[in-house]
Predict the 3D structure of the following.
Amino acid sequence: MQHILKNPIIPGFYPDPSICRVGEDFYLVCSSFELCPGIPLFHSKDLANWEQLCYVMTPENGFHVEKNSGVGGVMAPTIRYRKGTFYIINCNFSDRGNFIVTATDPAGPWSEPHWLTDVPGIDASIFFDQDDKCYIMGTGNVWPDGKGGMRQGIWAAEYDIDHFRLAGEPAALWGGAMAGVASPEAPHIYHIGDWYYLLIAEGGTEQYHSATIARSQSVLGPYEGFRGNPVLTVRHMGHKALIQNAGHADLVELPDGSWYAVFLASRLIGSVSKNLGRETYIVPVEWEEEWPLFSPQTGKVEWEYPAPASLPWTEYGSAAGSGNASEKGIAPGQDGRPKKDAFADGDLDLAWSFWGKPVRPFWEFTHPGIALSCLPQALAEPIQPMSMDAQEHSDKNYASFLARRRRQPHCRFGAKMCFTPEGKESAGIAIVQAMNHQLHLELAREDGRTFVQLVLFTSDFEVPPYLPGFCSVTNRRILASKPWEGSEIVLEMELDQNSYRFSCGMDEEHMELLCEADGALINPEKVGCMTGEVMGIFATANGSESSNRAHFAWTQYQDL
């Protein structure tokens, strides 16, 4: 039987992949932005089937992240291995910038952050050479722009990994394959044969994203770009291609000497939007004249490739849709239907995330079920400009919201809730994209009566929150509403491409459609779909103090 690699190998909002191999095991990490815990870590034996082992960054090892725009927090991690220790380097825009964490077991525990006060810029990466020397690299204004100034490029320096400090002067390595290219970033160095190869992303993470490569016979350069660049892109396929935004790659060698690359790309949903965000893909790589060929023969990202015959095939308990990635936790029942998550174990499995680090618990397990407190903070609060050197930690920049990623174009999420709203309070289920683009199916109170309603939030802004001059206006509009008697309700959303159907009922057998909405309404393309949709359960007092809670007997997610 011929096994296959199905793209995306990790579906849903799992961008910026970095990979390393230790013996017969592959480990992969992704960005998590403002979600907590942070940096999901996956394991595989065959590059096709992936199981999440842990989150690298948790409140227990000093992780802090704040709810804001959705596009802040932690992004672009690199994972590497050296002499029994795993290293992950990353940048946290909700805290003190660049850091390294270590572990001897990839499943954890991971160390507290070693803050890199002498490492500037974004997308820092590390490289261990064959002589055991360590180098650190990143992105900054280090490359001549031809006009007497400097523009963004890649730099590197020798690094003292034992004491977490620079051991040499930074050297400018490369400015990218195209003159004046936008956003040369995400550098990785590899020592292969007689050459050092520098693989980077350039063009920005949107339509013109790509991966390009250069090489040198010295780790600190000078580097010569490949005349066949870019080695990976789909920008020439146009805006209607079903796979978009490919780039930000990392190479890995198999035990048999063959090579693959993991990278991010986005699926075009309903021909108009990228609501799933950026996902993790894979292509085979061959070497020709000492340069890499990504996806040889076709040169484009394919939906499927033959799985490496040299690797054992390992299927985990819950393969998810077109990708073979699974999360520990909820697996499909034997009848093909997903099991309801009633939180009976008194714990949150790896499918769930918070938005922002909760300073105080807002949830309580009720055996079965879970109760969420109506905190003053709402899901759609005014967006603040991103600070690249945040130092002060707020105790309010999180929401009473348990979220999980949307993983496929067609899926369903629902919950059974018991809630009696008072004053400004509301609770229910929500689907959340970046920049306050959200849809809430909720119970709320108006003029002394309880209503079930679908509320749309969007925002207007000219520049992203990480650029100077950012300001935004959040808009709120009720799309549908009807009176509701009693406090018990089953809420459900079914997302099919960009057709979103919201239903409610007293129980699962008596569901009625409340409203249909266009998913493209919550696609903030102006920030490049850096994140993807998450959906979950929430409760809020919308700015007021409250002791009220919403009780959820169960939730249910299903890819269709």
